[in-house]
């Protein structure tokens, strides 16, 4: 069987480094369930270690996991909640680094305004090294691609848009897809809004065919694939025996699910990290 993937990427630069890490204090359990997902968060004081521009509207940052938290990161696609100290609302962010990576957790965060259910991300995308925050334990089941989950699957299609590339990057670099034929379709509006372009060559060496897709190429001198990731994948061909992993906005997810159904991909082989 084969599985397919589509990704969206953005580049990064100009990291600021935290000279002295803030040591986590006592962990505090709260009775509030955020967004109705998962268990109650257990908050631990923490701080941004490094932060850099990853692409237009996107930042890459690292945060050292609190003591005992890294052990909970075992599957690509898992996430943590992050909030300003004492804030009522928190943001949910997929971990971009691999579960096998040591040291800090890496994140790719898009700047978004506040809403009724979210505090927005401006407070952290505009932060500097040393900015204090609170982080939860690792949450969620992630992509079901480890162990025997993809046994018999030879092809994987990965789809991502914008900051949705975060958990896809984690999956690629985790080694969980080793031995599979992996095709990544990664979308952004413009090349300037595509993160991780500096990682494409590394992913290709890991056996991943990367197809960056730009939806608004006018005036950018872009010579690659244009339109939407699902259209690029349809043109390339979607094998019925593949598996699909994806992360992105609702419209993309619905279009990819429709494409998978049209191609005859089993519904249980179309995977998200939430």
Tell me about this structure.
The chain is α/β, with parallel strands linked by helices and 274 residues long. Strands 1, 11, 12, 13, 14, 15 and 16 form a seven-stranded parallel β-sheet that branches. The protein contains five helices and 16 strands. It is globular and about 50 Å long. It has helices at residues 122-125, 165-174, 200-205, 229-236, 250-263; strands spanning 4-6, 13-17, 28-29, 42-47, 50-55, 58-63, 79-83, 91-94, 105-110, 132-135, 155-161, 181-188, 208-214, 225-226, 243-247, 270-271. The longest helix has 14 residues, at 250-263.
Tell me the name of the CATH class of the largest domain: Alpha Beta
Structural class: alpha/beta
The helix content, as a percent range, equals: 10-25%
| Shape field | globular
**End-to-end distance:** 24 Å
CATH topology of the largest domain: Rossmann fold
**CATH superfamily label of the largest domain:** Nucleotide-binding domain of ferredoxin-NADP reductase (FNR) module
Low-confidence stretches: 1-26, 29-36
Largest sheet: 7 strands, parallel
H/E element sequence: EEEEEEEEEHEEHEHEEHEHE
Q: In total, how many beta strands?
A: 16
Tell me the strand percentage band.
Answer: 25-35%
């Amino acid at each position: 069987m084969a599985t397919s993937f589509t990704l969206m990427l953005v580049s990064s630069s100009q990291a600021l480094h935290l000279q002295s890490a803030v040591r986590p204090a006592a962990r505090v359990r709260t009775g509030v369930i955020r967004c109705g997902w998962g268990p109650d968060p257990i908050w631990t004081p923490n701080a941004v270690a490094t932060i850099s521009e990853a692409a237009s509207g996107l930042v890459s940052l690292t945060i050292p996991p609190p003591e005992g938290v890294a052990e909970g990161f075992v599957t690509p696609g898992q996430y943590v909640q992050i909030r300003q100290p004492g804030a009522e609302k928190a943001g949910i962010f997929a971990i971009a680094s691999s579960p096998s990576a040591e040291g800090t957790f890496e994140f790719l965060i898009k700047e978004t305004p506040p809403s009724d259910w979210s505090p927005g991300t401006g407070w952290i995308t505009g932060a500097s090294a040393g900015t204090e925050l609170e982080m939860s334990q690792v949450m969620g089941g992630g992509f079901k691609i480890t162990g025997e989950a993809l046994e018999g699957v030879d092809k994987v299609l990965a789809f991502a848009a914008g900051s949705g590339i975060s958990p896809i990057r984690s999956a690629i670099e985790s080694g969980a897809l080793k031995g599979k034929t992996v095709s990544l379709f990664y979308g952004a509006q413009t090349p300037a809004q595509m993160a991780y372009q500096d990682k494409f060559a590394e992913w290709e060496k890991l056996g991943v065919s990367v197809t960056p897709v730009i939806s608004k190429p006018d005036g950018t001198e872009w010579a690659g694939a244009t339109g939407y990731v699902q259209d690029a994948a349809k043109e390339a061909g979607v094998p019925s025996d593949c598996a699909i992993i994806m992360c992105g906005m609702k419209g993309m997810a619905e279009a990819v699910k429709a494409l998978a159904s049209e191609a005859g991909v089993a519904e249980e082989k179309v995977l998200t990290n939430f």
